[in-house]
Amino acid sequence: MELYTPEYFMNEALKQAKTAFEEGEIPVGAVMVCRNRVIARAYNQTEKLTDVTAHAEILAITSASDSLGAKYLTECELYVTLEPCVMCAGASFWAQLGGIHFAASDPKRGYGRMNENLLHPKTKVSRGLMETEAKELLDAFFRKLRK
Amino acid sequence: MELYTPEYFMNEALKQAKTAFEEGEIPVGAVMVCRNRVIARAYNQTEKLTDVTAHAEILAITSASDSLGAKYLTECELYVTLEPCVMCAGASFWAQLGGIHFAASDPKRGYGRMNENLLHPKTKVSRGLMETEAKELLDAFFRKLRK
Q1: Coil, helix or strand at residue B70
Q2: Which listed site, A28, A86, A99, B118, has its alpha carbon 20 to 30 Å from A52?
């Protein structure tokens, strides 16, 4: 049995998103995987830190670079529960991320709505893994917010 | 005599860029101005922090939000010595920046090369203020690097 599957990593990202949910943050979680090992975990903390840049992806990139002592994350793959925004896509470009796997799409704020590819040419992308779970968490958050 | 002119603020950003230069960082500096007062100063620290997200603009936004206790910087204007990249444009979108003034253009990595406007619709932009000084500093840095 292979433990460290993409599903395993995305589920770890989803756990981070659930922590965000519990703390009243928009529930987006991320983990950075390097050579089949999780080297960073993060969730959206824009409210807690009063900082629009504190997206899960930015925090995961910063934390992964700190862990590896390297600016470039060419051998790392980011698992994130929501399609990255333009800011996070730009950050992943600079980090030269090896790969991005995202669960739910974000037609309104995702980087994919841009005509140009904002990612680094070396960054491989996959989407849709555990999309239902990620989306349900986001929907539950916004339903709660509107009450 | 008006002390707090756009030239004054851009010169403060340029001082930050010079500090970056002295520390071996790509010399980009920024200040955040709110109601005619500098509330944050920052320079590029990607090398020192081993973090691709540590651009002057990101650090200035984070610092300004910390100073004001507010995520949104609608009454703030960012003075930065180089045209922001996609990541920083995306961050300024989330912060709903009132304005961005940049000195030198960045045809290769600036946000302006994208067909879409990546900035918030409320963000006013001016460019070219003290461009020569900002560009000279960058050119001097890359000349030194190539030696």
Answers
A1: coil
A2: A99
pLDDT tens-digit profile of B54-76? Answer: 999 999 999 999 999 999 999 99
Angle, CA of B69, A67 and A125, to the nearest 5°: 85
Domains of chain B: 6-135 (3.40.140.10)
CA A105 to CA A107: how far, in whole Å? 6
- Assembly ipTM: 0.96
Is A64 in contact with A32 (CB distance < 8 Å)?
Answer: yes
Active-site entry in B7, B47, B57, B131: B57
pTM (2 d.p.): 0.96
- Answer whether A65 sits within 8 Å of B46, measured CB to CB: no
Distance from CA of A69 to the nearest CA of B (A): 7
Place of tokens 């690097």: B145
